[in-house]
Amino acid sequence: MPEMTNIPKGELEGLKERARKLAGEKSYLQLALSLMNRLSAVPGLENTIGNILSIVLESIGGANISIYYFIDDDIYYADVFGKRTTIDRIDNGLVKKVLENREFIEIEHAFSDTKMTTPEFTKASTCAVPLMVGADIIGVLKMEDMHMSVREVREQFQPFFNYAALVLKNEILGHTRLKKAYDKLSRTNSELEAANAALEKAYTDLKAAQAQLLQQDKMASIGQLAAGVAHEINNPMGFIISNLNTLRKYAEKRTRFLDVQAGGLEDLAKKTAPENGTTLDFVRKQRAALKMDYITGDINNLISESLDGAERVKRIVQDLKSFSRVDAAECAYADINRALDSTLSIAWNEIKYKAGVIKEYGDLPQVYCNPGQLNQVFLNILINAAHAMETKGEIRIKTWAERGCIRVSISDSGQGMPPENIKRIFEPFFTTKEPGKGTGLGLAIAYDIIVNKHGGRIDVTSELGKGSEFTITLPIAPEETL
Fold first, then answer.
1. Which stretch of DSSP H or E encloses residue 387?
2. What is the longest distance spanned by two Cα atoms in the chain?
3. Are 63 and 114 in contact (CB under 8 A)?
4. Rounded to the nearest 5 degrees, what angle is found at the Cα of 443, between the Cα atoms of 441 and 447?
5. How do strand 355-360 and strand 393-402 relate by DSSP bridges?
6. Helix, coil or strand: residue 326
7. Is 417 exposed, middle or buried (0-12, 13-18, 19+ CB in 10 A)?
8. Contact (CB, 8 A) for 456 and 450
9. Residue 460 pairs with which residues in a beta bridge?
10. Nearest 5°: CA angle at 229, between 227 and 234?
11. Which residues, 6 or more positions from 67, have their beta carbon under 8 angstroms from its beta carbon?
12. CB–CB of 389/414 below 8 Å?
């Protein structure tokens, strides 16, 4: 057996006391560790505040547990009853003292002054605890009407308070970073919304400007063709007026002859048979003198010619109205061959002195399109073809259907273009015409209408001295692609 060592009684009591103290400290540390783990279990600032309050209430007790904490320059208050608010200043004297002294402060109460109702307690205290991380105070924890002394609270819960301050600081920093990120994101979203609104307005303005530009180009084209259109209308109107004047003279002569004829019939009724020959001879002479037989034959010709002229005027006016209409958003199924004829009618006086037109129209299905816009495209290409003629030449228009599309080819025997111009012909305001003879927008608008608005394609080939050819490809229906 090992030899027993005699330990003095006083020293043995000291060892026992130290063992009890170590056991107590171990118990406190185990409690603190358990509370720390619980506090760390659920992250987030609101969760951390709620956990601190509930842990202190359960572990220390009291009528109310509250916490004051700081985020930037703002003061926040929370208590165990669920109140959460921002306050302008701290009015509680105890909390203010803790902020100034940065140490535990306790105020004892007589039992009658407390909210506690358990008769076994004779006194209670309110304690305010600074939550410190290094030299920085993160907040103040206030425990009202508790039945533990400041010494007991410090001995048992100081590690927890230190850890709670650290966790709270980290959550506040995280909250601050998140709030700054959120504010930045909100500002960015606001800026993006403003930029998007500006873009939408710019797009709306651009669409309005584009529509206005298209209409201006139409009006400019009509203005250039106005003299020719006036001539095309004036020509049939001239012979209609002439025919109407002739018809008026014919009507006057016919009226005079009818008067003579009526008088002769009255004479025949009054005279005897031998005298009738004289009256009939007079009527025949008047018929010849007034050219009644010629008038009778010519009246139908005049009426037919006038009706044809009126029909030509009507057709020109309808084509002009169709071409110049403003309803740019109107789409429908249309006959492309008819659209080409309509455009030729408008531009005919500009073309007929420069070129003969050969039409090779194929059998086309109707195409879903904006007829007014396509008329503008055809007009721009036809007028350009006419202007490319130095001497009288030829314009050939060919249409055909192919693989779900229709194609329109407009070629001329004009002077052609050099390669450097071919690359630029669809640029806005680019023109090779003399000043005053073009806006430089015709082909740019044509490209926009065919490619962007109709999902088609426009190709051009040209050779100097031989002429140019524009080929337009359009899908038959909007769902079909090229």
1. helix 371-387
2. 195
3. yes
4. 115
5. parallel
6. coil
7. buried
8. yes
9. 470
10. 90
11. 49, 52, 53, 77, 78, 79, 131, 139, 140, 141, 142
12. yes
| 398: its two tokens | 């060919």
Report strand pairing: 332-334 vs 367-369: antiparallel
Contacts of 333 (CB under 8 A, 6+ apart): 366, 367, 368, 369
Is residue 239 packed enough to be buried (19+ CB in 10 Å), middle (13-18) or exposed (0-12)? middle
pLDDT tens string, the chain, 482 residues long: the values are 455 556 665 665 665 566 565 555 555 565 566 667 777 777 888 888 888 888 888 888 788 899 999 988 889 999 999 899 999 888 888 899 998 888 888 887 655 444 544 555 556 788 899 999 988 999 999 988 877 777 878 877 888 888 889 889 988 998 888 888 988 999 999 999 999 988 888 877 777 776 666 666 665 665 556 556 666 676 777 777 777 777 777 777 777 777 777 677 667 666 655 555 666 677 778 777 777 777 777 777 777 777 777 777 777 777 666 665 544 457 888 899 988 998 888 788 888 888 999 999 999 999 998 888 888 889 889 988 888 888 889 999 999 998 889 999 999 998 888 888 888 887 776 676 665 555 556 788 888 889 888 889 999 999 888 899 999 999 987 654 33
β-bridge mates for residue 87, sequence order: 75
C-alpha dihedral (273, 275, 279, 285), degrees to nearest 10: 110
Residue type for position 420? E
**Residue 330 is encoded by which pair of tokens?**
């109107």
Cα separations in angstroms, 233 against 65, 201, 306, 314, 392: 99, 44, 13, 9, 23
Q: How far is CA 171 from CA 56, 70, 164, 166, in A?
A: 19, 12, 10, 9
Residue with tokens 């572990």: 59
Q: Which two tokens stand for residue 334?
A: 């249309």
